[in-house]
Design goal:
The protein is α/β, with parallel strands linked by helices. The chain folds into two domains: 9-49 and 104-300, TIM Barrel; 52-103, no CATH class. It is 28% helix and 22% strand. The chain has helices spanning 109-117, 120-126, 141-153, 168-171, 190-197, 202-212, 232-243, 261-267, 281-292, and strands at residues 9-18, 26-31, 52-55, 80-82, 88-90, 100-103, 105-107, 129-133, 157-162, 180-184, 218-224, 248-255, 298-300. A hairpin with a 7-residue loop joins strand 1 and strand 2. Helix 1 (109-117) packs parallel to helix 3 (141-153) and helix 7 (232-243) packs parallel to helix 9. The model has no long low-confidence stretch (mean pLDDT 92).
Length: 301
């Protein structure tokens, strides 16, 4: 086995037997930290690059172990979280009910490889592999590069899910160790994009064009969000852009799902799309037909 690099990264989870993050059966690694702040994000625990606390009220047995009237001792500092009822809860790492948990842990590329090797036979039988997701992979570009290189050296299919909002200098070093890049194009209008995500889309589109000129399979994705891009004109414009990428495998539409609301509550954060409706299946089919007029394969997830 290749000598392990002396580098670590921060992740929230390693999910085995994933079927929605690339081809085949995959292991998905969720990086912590993102350079965007999408209003609908369904993984809010991955936005902040630092470890956080989550409180799951449904698991709480009321033991009182995390309720402390006074500040923790300076010699023994503990992360503090104020829950949705204003109760200060101090994390001591001993919540037996796992109601108060720390989100974010440090791992090495070797740790990820070790997890991945456990499912090597499943990858071989299903043409699967490992996907680095997030959060945003390029926020921890050096860690991602070393991890992908180690996986590739060990014969594992590699993929990333990215928003492409990073400088090209953070993306390019990842490419030699990648078999697939999946990226979002959320909206073609930069002002609208900035309003809903916190940044414009100019860099994203430029990076997409660069990727499209390379011999590397691409999957373009669009999360369909009520009031943002759930109209045929918006999706058609994105599909027209995607059709111009010579390495495009297919275009995928992802229907908005409000289930992430519970995660915001557990983090003590507001969820801006709390009352947003689900996207009807009929609308998703209409959007798919509009995208397909540009001569590309369109899938709905």
């Amino acid at each position: 086995m290749t000598a392990l690099p002396d580098i670590t990264g921060t992740i929230t989870d390693i999910q085995r037997f994933s079927l929605n993050d690339g081809p085949g059966i995959r292991t998905t690694v969720f990086f912590k930290g993102c350079n965007m702040n999408c209003s609908w994000c369904h993984n809010p625990e991955t936005i902040n690059p630092k470890p956080e606390l989550q409180f799951f009220r449904s698991k709480c047995i009321g033991c009182g172990g995390c309720r402390r009237a006074a500040e923790p001792d300076a010699a023994d500092p503990a992360p503090c979280f104020t829950d949705d009822e204003g109760v200060a809860r101090y994390y001591r790492g001993n919540c037996h009910a796992e109601a108060l948990v720390r989100v974010g842990r440090t791992v090495s590329p070797g740790d990820i490889l070790g997890e991945a090797l456990q499912d090597r036979n499943f990858y071989a039988n299903s043409r699967g592999g490992v996907t680095l997701s997030g959060g945003e992979v390029t926020v921890q570009s050096a860690f991602a590069r070393e991890t992908l290189s180690l996986l590739k050296t060990n014969g594992i299919h590699t993929a990333i899910e990215t928003n492409l909002a990073a400088p090209w200098e953070r993306i390019e070093p990842l490419l030699p160790s990648l078999d697939l890049v999946m990226f979002d194009i959320k909206h073609m209008d930069s002002a609208t994009h900035r309003e809903w995500t916190g940044i414009g889309n100019e860099r994203i589109l430029e990076n997409a064009r660069r990727l499209g000129s390379l011999d590397l399979p691409l999957i373009v994705r669009t999360p369909v969000i009520p009031g943002f891009n759930d109209r045929a004109a918006a999706i058609s414009e994105i599909a027209a852009f995607a059709a111009g990428l010579s390495a495009l495998d297919y275009y995928e539409l992802l229907a908005f799902n409000p289930l992430g609301a519970d995660k915001y509550r557990c983090l003590g954060k507001p969820y801006l799309l709390q009352d947003a409706p689900m996207i009807p299946d009929s609308t998703m089919r209409e959007l798919s037909r509009a995208a397909a007029t540009h001569g590309i394969e369109v899938r709905i997830a």
